[in-house]
Amino acid sequence: IESLEDDGRVIFVDGTWVVADTILYCTGYSYKFPFLESKGRVEVDDDRVGPLFEHTFPPCLSPSLSFVGIPRKLIGFPFFEAQAKWIAQVLSGKSSLPSPDQMLQSVADFYRSRDLAGIPKHNTHDIADFTYCDKYADYVGFPHLEEWRKQLCLSALTNSQENLETYRDSWDDHELLQEALQSSHFTNFDC
């Protein structure tokens, strides 16, 4: 993009242009919390938010402060729903957390495992692991991810790698979509 004009035109570097009603900036997944004064107890360093026990609770400020939605590269909404349920259970006293020292040790062990696996710090919260999601669900008695959901995710990833420009328009997983529509997690709009 060369420029954005007041009349709604988007001018491209080759001189062509289009009129746009809306422009959506996709800037990536960078974490910033300028409103949070945690006195260094929660920091963002190279997109690593931490320390956070299980990507949710800062040990020195838990349970009064928690984060939902930090992890990436997972099936987000079911995971975030499990996070919210866990936070509610902890805040209501129905579930408890390990001691701050135990949580810090768990975070340190997690960071060490990521380092040993060669995962850069800025990818700390890239999970991409269904087993982790299921383990997390076990914390709160949340159901494990359904097999169709895992297969649909893998199918979409494979399709996007093979057909980057057209993967949103073509797919070969109709049976998974039909199974998804039968799931209790989908709203039925029968009127």
From TrEMBL:
GO MF term list: flavin adenine dinucleotide binding; N,N-dimethylaniline monooxygenase activity; NADP binding
The keyword Chloroplast is assigned to this record: no
Pfam hit, one: FMO-like
Domain of life: Eukaryota
Family, similarity comment: Belongs to the FMO family.
This protein's record includes keyword Heme: no
Keywords of this entry: FAD, Flavoprotein, Oxidoreductase
Protein name, entry field: Flavin-containing monooxygenase
